[in-house]
């Protein structure tokens, strides 16, 4: 391995380690404003996926998923309720969904990177947007598939007055989910673009 390759690998591992730490930390400090609770956990996942592809996205997604699962042991009231119904299903809701979201985001980024200059540039926009969307879609789909008939979700169904699983997802995600997707995109795009520009000699 050449000296340049070693340096590039070192930079990559350093960046991914830093992004992993950021994922773990910000998972515990959601932004609370106007009655909404917004998490930016998908931002560093999107950044890593855009910069280094599907494997990096999957690894960062796994970090997020594991932290989310551990939060179910007392930190998250909602997670604790799910855990009381099924620890295995809760794990499936928390971890594989985030791994898949990160992996697909990275795969899309890698595919677009091989295109012309305009497509290559567009990957920062597209992947910054699809990362939080995929996270929401996979999380909610798995949650409904595994827990919809359980006591926890049925309580929410009753409170929200949801007539079916689709309406439940719309009401449960609501404005908070939409704001989180938009906010995540607004942050992930300039960050991923800026980091790439700063480290472009190491790619």
What does this protein look like?
The two termini are 15 Å apart. Helix content is 81%, strand content 3%. A two-stranded antiparallel ribbon has the order 1-2. It is elongated. The protein has 203 residues and is mainly α. The longest helix has 35 residues, at 165-199. It has one domain (3-202): Arp2/3 complex 21 kDa subunit ARPC3. Helix 5 (87-113) packs antiparallel against helix 6 (117-147). It has eight helices and two strands; from the N terminus they run H-E-E-H-H-H-H-H-H-H. It has helices at residues 3-26, 42-52, 54-71, 77-85, 87-113, 117-147, 151-160, 165-199; strands spanning 31-33, 36-38.
How do the strands line up in the largest sheet? 1-2
Major sheet: 2 strands, antiparallel
Give unreliable regions as ranges.
Answer: none
Question: Given the C-alpha coordinates, what overall shape results?
Answer: elongated
Number of strands: 2
Q: N-to-C terminal Cα separation, in Å? A: 15 Å
CATH architecture: Orthogonal Bundle
Mean pLDDT over all positions: 90
* Helical residues, percent: over 70%
Provide the gyration radius in Å: 18 Å
In percent terms, what proportion of residues is strand?
under 5%
Number of domains: 1
User: What's the CATH topology name?
Assistant: Arp2/3 complex 21 kDa subunit ARPC3
Question: How many H/I helices?
Answer: 8
Characteristic key phrases:
single chain; mainly alpha; Arp2/3 complex 21 kDa subunit ARPC3; two-stranded antiparallel sheet; 81% helix
């Amino acid at each position: 391995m050449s000296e340049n390759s070693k340096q590039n690998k070192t930079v990559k591992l350093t960046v991914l380690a830093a992004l992993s730490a950021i994922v773990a930390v910000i998972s515990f400090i959601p932004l609370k404003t106007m009655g909404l609770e917004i998490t930016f956990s998908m931002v560093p996942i999107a950044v890593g996926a855009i910069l280094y592809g599907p494997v990096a996205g999957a690894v960062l997604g796994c970090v997020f998923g594991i932290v989310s699962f551990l939060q179910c042991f007392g930190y998250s009231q909602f997670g604790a309720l799910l855990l009381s119904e099924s620890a295995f299903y809760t794990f499936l809701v928390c971890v594989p969904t985030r791994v898949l979201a990160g992996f697909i985001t990275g795969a899309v980024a890698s595919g677009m990177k091989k295109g012309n200059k305009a497509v290559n540039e567009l990957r920062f926009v597209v992947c910054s947007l699809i990362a939080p969307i995929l996270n929401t879609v996979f999380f909610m789909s798995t949650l409904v598939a595994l827990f919809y008939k359980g006591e926890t979700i049925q309580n929410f169904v009753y409170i929200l007055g949801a007539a079916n699983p689709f309406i439940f997802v719309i009401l449960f995600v609501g404005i908070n989910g939409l704001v989180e997707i938009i906010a995540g995109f607004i942050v992930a795009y300039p960050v991923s673009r800026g980091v790439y520009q700063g480290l472009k000699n190491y790619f």
